[in-house]
Amino acid sequence: VNDAPALKSADIGIAMGQSGTDVSKEAADMILVSDEFSSVTEAVKEGKGIFFNIRNFLRFQLSTSVSALSLIAIATCFGLDNPLNAMQILWINIIMDGPPAQSLGVEPVDNDVMLQPPRNISDPIISRVLIKRIITAALFIVSGTFLTFYLGMVDGQVTERDTTMTFTTFVLFDLFNALTCRSETKSIFKIGFFTNKPFVIAVSFSLFGQLLVIYFPPLQKIFKTTSLSFFDILSSTLLASSLFWFDELRKLVSKRFTAHRHDGLMYALVSSDTKQELSNK
Length: 281
What we know:
Helix 7 runs antiparallel to helix 9. The chain has 281 residues and is an all-alpha fold. It is built from eleven helices and two strands; from the N terminus they run H-E-H-E-H-H-H-H-H-H-H-H-H.
């Protein structure tokens, strides 16, 4: 503390804002304005929260982008009609992705982030685990959307209802994907549906906008959509929610596996200590 050479060589040099020298402040990476080390804990907590929010943002954006590109690429390779037209793709990229993605960046900091071990500074932000999450979500979105498109083509023709159903299913998958991306490890039922107010507003805005595109005649002409029945909306919602329930199941299994491994480790440590005490006696 307040030692310029040591502050310079440290991974994160911390200097006192009130009692520190000007030289130490220049060499430090962080300055404690109040000279209280307790503020370091809050800073670390906030920093960890920002890092995980960035990862959740990337997970959502990349999975949606990969899904949209894969959908068009597969349809083109197999000589099928495009499931989504240009205006619908533009709507997904700007309106459906924008507000929910931005709201993921302001997710409240989880207190459990302080239980996470320090991250190696050389580790990439897009890890292998994150890539697996992205690919899994993309597979769900592409498969579900193509299933809707295929079922609509059973009569051999692609109608406005078929493309509207496909478009709506993709959008609902997108919103359920955003819901799962709020936390990588915790269930949405634990963190709460309404703890992130900007997210609730963004999703509500996106849903309302999608309903306008489907049912408002001037927008129907622009996006080439048609009105859907209640059963159509319900079936698309149930199909799109499969991604949400799969991710909830993954989090539950992961939590139980982690708890079981922790209990096993504690048992091994206790057994080792007991054996050591017996040998000493």
